[in-house]
Amino acid sequence: MFENLGHVLYHVLIILFPILFYYQFLNNGAIGNTTKVNFRFLVTLLVMLFCTMSFPIEVTDGSYYDQKVIPVILAFLYGGWMTGLAVMASMLYYLFILGENNFLVMVLNYSIVTVFLVFSTKIYRNMTLKKKVLSISILLVVISITRALSFMYRGESDEIFLAMIVSLITWVSLVTAIMIIENLTMQMQLQHELQRSEKLKVVSELAASVAHEVRNPMTSTRGFLQLMSEDDNLSSAQKRYIEISIEELDRAQSIIQDYLSLAKPNKQGMDRINISQELKHVIQLMSTYTAINNTAICHKIDEGLHIKANKGEMKQVLINLIKNAIEAIDKGGTVTVNASSSRGTVLIEIIDDGMGMTPQQVAKLGTPFYSTKDKGTGIGLTISFQIIELLQGKIEVKSETGKGTTFTIKLPEETSV
Fold this sequence. Notes:
single chain; alpha+beta; two-stranded antiparallel ribbon; 12 helices; about 15% strand
């Protein structure tokens, strides 16, 4: 009975090799995107699925086992529900072609699995790695129990032990695949953060060495332009040209000040502040700007939310993000600001119903010199990301083209002493 059991281990290679190949040669950073199918990841899963189904293991006379459940689970958990349904449909169609005897039973079983995976995907992605492994282990235990009950129902109790061994190997393969995906994804994120830090370092060094020298002649030039504008012999057109020159110099000064803020982040003046009040103050401050742009701003802010931060810098972050949200929407649009607390973390959401951004644009946010606005430099958003990182928090961005963008600020909540 055990003579062919060792061949089950070949399926471990069938499962793990495509994942390693995907991360080495095909990964484009879009794994886990639920709003758009990652076709490279989908093809990888389909190759995995068809290989394990095309070469099943005959562990006893008439009993065949494969690991098709693994690509199905990975498709839902890491590719999104659209990828999951595509893999599930492909699996059932291939079973039909192969002439599966218990096809209707398989459809029923995997339909139940599909419903479970669709509703648990979002929860799964917010879990720690240990909880992910535990939840998947529980799912496989349930599948193994149902398989054992089916054997008992058909009077084939002698195959239960062997089925449990095969299920154990399947569990090892799935857990190993999850560990590979999680660890390689984490390494890619760390590499991205390292590249971003290197860019910030270069910009900071450039700002520190150049900004002061540039500001001095600009200040002198602005002063002379102001004196020239007071000359009564100038025509109205000439005075207007001087006003435009002064405005552009002021804009250049503002950009240089942003570079200086980026070069020398302020770690002083950290106090326990009521972020609920600060949010309301900023929303009131931005009300004039929303009126000018013919937009609306609404909010739902829980009372008594506190964080430890520099009040001025935190206000700068909120103004930057809310201003960007207002400018991202058309006239008549709405910006929504929410603030709440969850498990020791303050969550601040800034939501707009504008045109949204592509995944490529979202990935570049916070990078110096990158902006989706025609006259933007990207420094304001870069500073905002840096300030939040200094506060041991993070900014998450979710956006979909044509539907809008959500910026979520996550900061440690400062409890009262």
